[in-house]
Task: structure prediction
Amino acid sequence: MINTMGGTSQASDSQRIIHSLNALAVNGLLSMYAPERRLFCFRLKRTAAGMVREGVSPRYTAIALMGLHRLEQSGAASPIEIKPVFDLLSTNTDWIDNIGDLGLLLWLCALVAPDCFDKIDRRLDVQNSLVRFRDARLGRTIELSCLLAGLSHQALSRPRKVAATKTLAVEICRRLRMNQGEEGLFGHIARNNAIAAMMRRNTASFADQAFPIYALAKFSQAYGDDRAIAKAVDCALTLCESQGPLGQWWWNYDSSNGEITERFPVFSVHQHGMGPMALFALGEAIHSDFSPWVYKGLQWIEDNELGIDMQDNTASVVWRCVERGPFWRFWDAATSLVTRRRARKSCSGLRPQFECRPYELGWLLYALADQTNECRRMSCAGWTDRFSLSRPN
Result:
């Protein structure tokens, strides 16, 4: 059982942070866009010569477009025209070499051009994707979740697609549930894949939790499956119970017992993007409120282990993470291997990583661009001890 209390000042402060993050993300994505390529860069990195844009990434471009579309839905203008960039991604699909990228394209298509789904479906043979892609055969949680989210959004945007996509969506949902441990957390990879799972059988990152929570919430809404939403709730409760004192969403977990196995790095995108995205979607699906945990996670951006603001308005970025230096990473790995101890709680050797990637700001906008009105409503109404969830039976 989880119970959390808050106050009007907390909601007001969260509204301020959301406003600040949204404005920064819009400016940051504009600086990350390469108009001559109609793609976003791979990353923006701080160097001695200043901020340097490196490479391009179709995958990160798709996520950035989802964030900008959510920005437009909130009533603001996107600084970049979305449709021409989407047309490029959906016409030249050579970049799709895994089921996760396929899922992202379907997800984006459902948002910005749902009438294009049939054409993409035929070209990329979506119905046979679980056989064609290696990551699907390995049962990778994040990639399966992206495909499930894409199919679910298609069904929500075009109800006539429910019958055509349900069989595939149900099978993906079944595979995801097979990756889930007793404490509700999802493993990185299928438990029945003996060779691949030897190294990461029970290892689970925060992203391995956020994406299935989101996908199962949307699957439940699209296809009316209450069992799926119960699995998402179970995972979310374990994450909320494990949230750090400063709102940290920790890096790695043991999916077999729910314990934290590696606290750092703490990634900004988990705090402002993936965590809010998953918990807001789940809250909408079950008509419950996870905002206390979301807002506590957002506070970490300004109040973290290093006592610095991860937002840099001059560079228009949120710095990527707080991580341990090379020596401390090696020391943690070595002692963990020998002693099999839990993740260390010390903050020794921590430092910020001075780079930012377009997908991070894309997920930020996708999660937060339309949250201002909700924050304002709660700020005016005041907070009560109004959130209480029990684990599903």
Residues 8-32 form the longest helix (25 residues). Residues 162 and 223 are 7 Å apart (CA to CA). The first strand starts at residue 2 and ends at 4.
